[in-house]
Every structure is written in structure tokens, then in C-alpha cells.
Amino acid sequence: MKSAEIVCIMICLFLLLSGSAALAAETPAPEQVGLTVSVPTSSPEPTPSPTPEPTPTAEPADKWEALKMQYAADDTVQELIFVQYRGGSTAHLELWQKDAESEGGWKELLSCRAHVGMNGIDKQREGDKRTPTGDFGVLTAFGIKGDPGTALPYFKVTRDMYCCADEECYNKIVRKSEMHHKCTGEHLIDFKPCYNYCMFIDYNAECTYGKGSAIFVHCYGSKKYTGGCVAVTEKNMKTILTSVHPGVRVCIYQQ
Ligand SMILES: [Zn+2]
Predict the structure, then answer these.
(1) 10 within a domain of the structure (yes/no)
(2) Domain around 90
(3) How many Cα atoms within 13 Å fall on the side-chain side of residue 137?
(4) 7: in domain
(5) How far is the CA of 146 from the centre of ligand 1 (A)?
(6) Could you tell me the CATH number of the domain that includes residue 177?
(7) What is the pTM of this model?
(8) Are 251 and 66 spatial neighbours (Cβ–Cβ below 8 Å)?
(9) Is residue 78 part of a domain?
(10) 26 part of a folded domain
(11) Which of 54, 104, 129, 199 has the most other CB atoms within 10 Å of its CB?
């Protein structure tokens, strides 16, 4: 082989090697290849619209039906009072009674406007001017006026009765003459006409000091709100008292 041929072969080899090196440098790394492949450059098919979410079935609007279903199976409960909070200090009140003849097993005895706390519902503590939220029982009924003929236990308010706010008998209705303490709570007979007829609900029945006391369903006063109770007209209060039985539930929730 002539030296010129050797030089020519060497040059060709050099060109081949450098060419393949250049190619290798241009070859993307495997990750880059994968990325490039995964990103579609065009979308020939129209993007299908997402499947509509099924409508949730447990919205607050169904809470009331859920309560009716829950208590339909509970023989200790004959009536449900729904206090459907509508913002501000207003609510809608419904009284339902079990009735085998009626659709769903319940018939409506009363549907009316109601007032709740000045600051609405979701009571947390004494003095927050809120009505408690929840499903409550009734401890007793009472009033400045005499028993209207209720099936609930009922007492007529006397001058020495207080709903106590002292730590020692907090959230209990007491006779001051029997308790021998100063009693900073509500002097019941002073709350006319609100307490003409009342139901004492079992919010804070454990009597935790400061959690809230004297939560009643009572008659309207002169204001369009309460201090944390539920109020309806005296006529409606009388209808409630003469319709309900021990075991009645008072259910207070956002509408
Ligand atoms: Zn007291």
C-alpha cells in the first residue's frame, strides 16, 4: 500500500469517527426522548368533556328528611320541631308529628316564622347571643301562665324561680329560697311575655360552666331576635305545647 493511500484511509476513518461522535452528541438522552414522546403535538380528536359529577345526596336540604327517617324508627319520639336557620336572627319553624296515614309517616302541624339569637346559631359560650346548633331533647316545659294542657311536665313560674348562672348550679332552674345563694341568672318571672310559655331544651344539660344557660323555646318579646333561644308567637307556642309529648326533639340547623 502506498503512503498516499494510507493517508487517505486515515482521513476517511477520522471523518467517519468524528461524524458518529457528532451524531452521538445530538442524540437526546433517554429521559428527553420519553418526555418528547409523552407530550402530544396535536390532538386530532376533540377533548372529551369531563363526566359530570353526580349530585351529592347529603346536602343540608335533605337533613330534615334524614331526621324524619331516623326518628321514624324511634318509638320514644312522636314529634320533631325543625328550626331551619335562614340567616340574621330569623328561622323557619316546622312541627311534625308521626302519622301512619301521611306520606312518609309524618304530618305537619305547624309551619311558622321564628327568631333565634341576635348573632345567629352555632352557640359556643355564655353571652355570645347565639342559639345552639344541634338536635336537642326537652327537659321540661314551664311558664308565667298556667299549663295550657301539655303532655310535657309543666310548672308555673313563681317569684323565687331563677335559671341560675352561678357556677354552683349553672343552667339549672332553682328556687332561690331553697338554694340560699345570690343567683345571678335569669329571674324567670321578669321575662314577660317571652316566658309566658317555655320549653327548656337540653343544650348543656351537663351544666358546664360558661358553655351557655337558659336555652328555651319561648314566646316572642318586643325584639326580632333572642339572646340565644328560639322564639315564636305566643299562639304558636301554645300550639307546640299542646301538640308535643315527652321525647320531642328540637332540631336546629342551617336551612
Ligand atoms: Zn343561683
Answers:
(1) no
(2) 63-254
(3) 10
(4) no
(5) 24
(6) 2.40.440.10
(7) 0.76
(8) no
(9) yes
(10) no
(11) 199
Residue 159 CA to ligand 1 center (angstroms) comes to: 14
Separation of CA 126 and ligand 1 centre (Å)? 15
What is the Å distance from ligand 1's center to 27 Cα? 89
Taking only the tens of pLDDT, the chain with its 255 residues reads 455 554 444 444 444 444 444 444 444 444 443 333 344 444 455 555 665 565 554 454 589 999 999 999 999 999 999 999 999 999 999 999 999 999 889 999 999 999 999 999 999 999 999 999 999 999 999 999 999 999 999 999 999 999 999 999 999 999 988 878 888 899 999 999 999 999 999 999 999 999 999 999 999 999 999 999 999 999 999 999 999 999 999 999 999
Number of domains composing the chain: 1
CA of 124 to the centre of ligand 1 (A): 21
Q: 49 C-alpha to center of ligand 1: Å?
A: 66
